[in-house]
Amino acid sequence: MARKSYIQIDGVLYEKGTEPASYEKQAPRVFGDLPDFVSPIDGTIVRGRAGMREHCKRHDVVPTADLAGLPSRMPEQRLPTAERREDIKRTMQKLGYF
Which of 21, 57, 80, 84 gives the lowest tally of CB atoms within 10 Å of its CB? Predict the structure, then answer.
């Protein structure tokens, strides 16, 4: 007789391999350290997460990744209109940019 294994989810036993599709296995995750980079603020080399925390604290800034999903602070009226964009293109063509 073959052995069977079961998984208990919310008090219900499921045979392994038959658990609901919405069930996601929970496991610890390990993230590697951040790669070294040159600070655009002061030109120093920032190494790892600890270096990033110190750099942000020293310059009173936050990493760009922490701003993902936030609305833009730029008001809509500051964006150029279609006519203004065309005017900018014509000016750039006159100056030989493209």
Answer: 21
Would residue 62 count as lying in a domain? yes
pLDDT class of 25 with cuts at 50, 70, 90: low
Tell me how far apart the alpha carbons of residues 15 and 6 are, in angstroms, rounded to a whole number: 4
Q: Which string of DSSP letters, residue by residue, matches 4-72?
A: --EEEETTEEEETT-S-TT---------PPPPPEE-TTT-PEE-HHHHHHHHHHHHT---GGGGTTPPP
Residue 52 lies in a domain: yes
Report residue 70's pLDDT band, with 50, 70 and 90 as the boundaries: confident
Q: pLDDT band at residue 7, thresholds of 50, 70 and 90?
A: confident
Structural domain count of the chain: 1
The whole domain housing 59 covers: 32-66
